[in-house]
C-alpha cells in the first residue's frame, strides 16, 4: 500500500504538466494537451480513494516526462503558425 501524495504535490505536478503542454509550438497539440491536463487533474483532485490517487499520480509523472519529450520534438519540427495564432491573440479562444 503506497502513501497518498499530498495536495501540494498534486498541484505542483498539475502546474508542471500545464507548463509542458504550453511549450508545444503547434496550436492543436498545445490546446489538446492543455484541455486533457485540466480534465485529468480535475478528476484526480476529486478522487478520495488513496490507492487510485497514488496510481494516477505515478501515471501522471510518467505522462509528464513523455509530454516534455514530445514538446521538444514538436518545437524542432513545428510548421508555420496558423492564422488563428497570428500576433499571439486568439479571438474568442480559451
Automatic annotation (TrEMBL):
Q: Which Pfam families match?
A: Complex1_LYR
One cellular component term (GO) for this entry is: mitochondrion
> Biological process (GO) annotations?
iron-sulfur cluster assembly
> Which InterPro entries does UniProt cross-reference here?
Complex1_LYR_dom, Complex1_LYR_LYRM4, ISC_assembly_LYR
Domain Complex 1 LYR protein, residue spans:
10-66
Similarity comment: family membership: Belongs to the complex I LYR family.
Q: In its UniProt entry, what is this protein called?
A: Complex 1 LYR protein domain-containing protein
Amino acid at each position: 500500500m503506497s502513501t497518498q501524495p499530498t495536495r501540494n504535490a498534486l498541484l505542483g505536478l498539475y502546474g508542471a504538466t500545464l507548463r509542458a503542454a504550453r511549450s508545444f509550438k503547434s496550436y492543436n497539440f498545445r490546446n489538446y494537451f492543455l484541455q486533457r491536463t485540466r480534465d485529468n487533474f480535475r478528476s484526480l483532485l476529486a478522487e478520495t480513494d488513496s490507492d487510485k490517487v497514488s496510481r494516477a499520480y505515478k501515471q501522471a509523472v510518467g505522462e509528464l516526462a513523455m509530454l516534455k519529450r514530445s514538446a521538444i520534438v514538436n518545437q524542432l519540427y513545428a510548421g508555420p503558425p496558423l492564422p488563428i495564432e497570428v500576433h499571439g491573440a486568439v479571438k474568442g479562444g480559451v
